[in-house]
Amino acid sequence: MKTNDEIFARRRARPYRPCQIRRVTKLLILSLGASVTTLAAHAAVHYQVLKAFGGVEEGTIPLASLTQGKDGALYGTTYGGGDGRGTVFKVNQDGTGYSVLHSFSTNAIDSQNPSSPLVEGKDGALYGTTQSGGTYTNGTIFRLNKDGSGYSVLHNFGNGADGEHLLAGLVEGTDGMLYGTTSGGGAYGQVYGGFGTAFRLNKDGSGYSVLHNFGNGADGQGPQAGLVEGTDGALYGTTYFGGTNSTGTVFKMNKDGTAYTMLHSFIAFAADGYSPTAALMQGTDGVLYGTTSGGGTSTNQYGFGTVFRLNRDGTGYRVLYSFDSARGDGAFPQTALIEGGDAALYGTTAYGAVSPGNTSYGPATAFKLNKVGTGYSVLYNFPGDVTYGYPFVSGLILGTNGALYGTSLSGGPEGQNTVFKLNEDGTGYVILHSFGLMPTDLMSPFGGLVEGNDGALYGTAQRFGFGGNEEAALFRLEARSGGYTVLRFWDHQVWDGSAVSGSPLVEGADGFLYGTTPRGGPYTNDYNFGGLGTVFKLKKDGSGYSVLHSFGNVGDGVQPLVGLTQGSDGWLYGTTPEGGAYTNQYGETLGTVFKLNTDGSGYKVLYNFGANASDAAYPSTALLEGSDAALYGTTGAGGTNDSGTVFRLNKDGTGYAVLYNFLTNSVDGESPSALIEGGDGALYGTTAYGGPYTNQYGYGGLGTVFKLNKDGSGYVVLHSFGPTDIGGRSPGKLVEGRDGALYGTAASGGAYTNEVGQELGAVFKLDKDGGGFTVLHSFMGAGSDGQFPAPLLMEGKDGAFYGTTIAGGCGLGTVFRLWPPETPDILDVKAVGSEAQMSFAGVSGYHYQVLRSTDLKNWTSSPTITMPASGVYTNLDGVPTIGQSFYRAAWVP
Fold first, then answer.
1. Which of 69-78, 161-170, 207-216, 815-824 has the lowest mean pLDDT?
2. Contact, 782 vs 106, CB < 8 A?
3. CATH of the domain spanning 268-436, picked from 3.40.50.1820, 3.20.20.140, 2.120.10.30, 3.40.50.10540
4. Which residues contact 528 (CB under 8 A, 6 or more apart)?
5. Residue 804 contacts residue 448 (beta carbons within 8 Å)
6. How large is the greatest C-alpha to C-alpha distance in the chain, in angstroms?
7. What is the pLDDT of residues 419-439, one digit of tens each?
8. What 3-state DSSP class applies to 8?
9. How far apart are CA 551 and CA 574, in angstroms?
10. Class (C level, CATH) for 1-44+822-893
11. Coil, strand, or helix at residue 598?
């Protein structure tokens, strides 16, 4: 058996690749972003995270100003998100085309947490810095092409007297070298972590040298801003501490580090201003302009900050403007100024005016000021609530179209981070992009998925963070495009449901989605708490929500924990684990089977569990309608041995029979999951406990996979999970694949563990005769991978398996997709004259089709082909649709 290290190394070496779709537009090939990455290998299981909840896969907390590339696009960084430690992103000036170019990993040696602007080099590549990560965990300099390729770490900070903790970005000098500062490290003040450095290096990472070590005597200390090269070829910058008064400086030096000069030393708590955090800006008049985060002439003893000017020789220092939030100004400018097309100065403040009658500060502002200090005006008060400490707005940049662009930590829908656009006169504020992480985003998608007749995936999850009374939600996810929408939140309203159940929704023949909630509704328990559950329906766009039935009336079932089944007769069938006519010796009700129409009429309890001492009890899995039109289900307890049962019931409530009583011994399973009917007509399921193996504490069993005929005969354990079985334990509901094998998930087991030793789960495959047990994927929890899969897989119309994990990814769970080995991999799509040519790889001897669409919804298929011995087939479409055509390949079992 492979060791965990060997498995991890192998899995890291195999890239995870997304969906294979290419587009032909006017017979020119255009890719659909990351969704068309080519798979070089085939005949292997393919795994992809479609959605990492929290939205952080697209980045969150954009702290830095944007950079406009020579191609006109905007480029930026986020401190968090991605694979856990931030991203580099791209977005067009109109807000379209948002994409993550690079995600920084939680791997300790990778760059982590960028918080400064990027710079585009003369070579067209992007260069940036990170606060942490790298070989010494103290930050890095990295390089990245504008298409996201070519990522490399150029320098790792923190080695000896090297600098560390980069808060600022880089500047490319006229000599082609990169220049920057570190806020810590260096030769002086090591007992305090160092007072910082100024450095330079070549764009290939060579030639790194420290130009200046801050903190020697009355020198400046702790530069938090980057450098700027003046028109005279010298470098100019600021420090937050140090200087004659220990409250910051403006300095100048040559690009080789010589002739270091302190041009100005700020004075604490004075009209002068102090502690600058932003880089300088050289105006078209040759003068240096900057801001201080404190000081000025305001009535506050510490001041609210200033805008200042200074000649390049250190003369002519002057405060142009002192902020005072009490008079409606902004407060605490912490970002660099820019010069607009009208030669005025533009900038932002971290906070806004004090609210009338209140001592708290308002949200951030954008302001304008003439270079002589006149004409100050607040251009825009950014939306957002500073209660939770999210007022930050980045510095502005001036786009080639004359508009101002920036990022903010609030202001988007439900308060999330944004990229925004603003005109120089303060009009035209537009949110171009809202980053995903927000207090009201979702987490732990526990209810599995259903594929609608529109091809989208629908699922349920919990609501994360500050949600008031809302606890659960319904989401929609486009598997191909990645489009994600929250359709509905559930709350504690008296008649509404609450906390959606842990089974998938069901799409009715009428196109509506149906489900249950374990709480909500007008009835309450003996403690007058929570409501006793509902059955609901709604349209796939989230509208038309209605409660069809509220549980809790006399003799009714209560608190349904699982989803519904629509029978061939059109009725909805379900179970409740409590309620009904019978109780045990402790007075606990033992559950029901019920049915109702899709309009809510005709509700009826078909069966009350607990009719005798050996009857089943506590049904907690969804029902199955067999090919014989009868209902089949399981109970978690009850039966002859009180270890659960498999039961059968006609849809009119007659013919109830316990088909199998699970035993409490070392071989049989206990506590069965939901059933499926195989193509051979037999019932298949799993048990959460039982089997011959025990856990590390010596009890419980680790679960089984079993088979049972519909007449109750032929029970056999096909597989018992065990301590050396990396396939998992506590397995969930099975699904039969197109190849006739059984597929499932296990919430524990697998090849990987977390920091407290918990196994993270796996997806497995098993033949229906019990042979061929295979682990298809072990959840890692690292990067964007999930952990602890929900006990429900779904096979999509495309032959792939879809599921969810309740944790991992970006911390809040994932939706994942897994392809079987036979899945084709597109290798190339191109125009050949007036024809469209697609090459794809597959398994020799297997059957495949090429499909074409103009809208990604309706597909036409080619005749079935057999994959040749080479494993590669090239298809030629002689009459592609004029305009656009989409192509994909499909395995035909």
1. 815-824
2. yes
3. 2.120.10.30
4. none
5. yes
6. 98
7. 999 999 999 998 888 875 444
8. helix
9. 12
10. mainly beta
11. coil
